[in-house]
């Protein structure tokens, strides 16, 4: 994670440096260009002002006056006649100035004047030329010169200021990015440590789940995962313990009664009785193993659903006709109410298992001389199946747990009634594999209603 922090910091730093460099570079170019243009515009403007004065009074006195005015300025003026012969100048004329004056002879220029030399970085002077035009006739020229050393000094100072500012900006950026990368990576480091603890089955995870950002969402996801893994671990432990207990009981019966059957002096009546018990427990054990195997297939996603469209009423009537004798034997009336022409897209074999399981539960827990009602009807795009009994009901505290594997509401009566605590878990799994839902409502002492809701076409 430290590598991530380092890489993140370096990446940020490189991006910031590139952006800062581009920003400072273009800002530097803009300022330099602005300052040079200001100097050249000022030089050209002074030359044009002198030209305007000379156009009004082009005589020796005015010419000397102009030269005298520029003698105290940083700029230099040279006044030439129409043949580029020098009449007067504010300063001594050196070789560089003579070259620029000569250069001006071959240039095309307008009354507004032009730049003769603008290369401030390599040449000693900036120079402009403005023609003196009187009554349409070109009477002479005003040359203006500005030493480029002050400009270069100014640019050098500006460059130094930018270098200092850039250096300070880089230092601030490095410090900011360091703390920013730490701010981002520290939660990631804690999450990494949390996941390592989870892999070691230590679910004592402490994360900042109150952040209102992506890191907060990730922390909440890891925290939820930790809780779910803890729950699954406890569930697995409890499930294995329950399975061990459930298998141990019939195996104990089988071993115990098998030992008794091995006695030579056992009466034939008792032998027959104990053999029947062994057969009953073996059947119970086989059914439990079958259901456990079915749940294992569901967990591994090897449990396939093969749907087809069937008439629901005929399907339910067929199931009820086969189960009715068992209900009649217990003096329980089994009734079906089904809307005609209700079709549903289901796996008939798996769905039969669901209805059989729920009706078997209703038969076991319903009281004598009561009714068990099966209702099927359409509700918008859904088909609803309700199975209602008038039995003892389910205590409210147990309702959230009845779908868990091997959970039994009344542990003391479950064996007598043949319950293994797996049927409702299988029911819920099959219904959900069909894309439906199953819910339960129960009043303790009055009865229970299981409601299956499934799409007509899914």
TrEMBL record:
Domain HAMP: 182-234
Domain of life, source organism: Bacteria
Catalysis: reaction(s): ATP + protein L-histidine = ADP + protein N-phospho-L-histidine
Keywords (A to Z) from UniProt: ATP-binding, Cell membrane, Kinase, Membrane, Nucleotide-binding, Phosphoprotein, Transferase, Transmembrane, Transmembrane helix, Two-component regulatory system
Enzyme's top EC category: transferase
Known EC number: 2.7.13.3
Coiled coil: none
Protein name per the record: histidine kinase
Organism: Paraliobacillus quinghaiensis
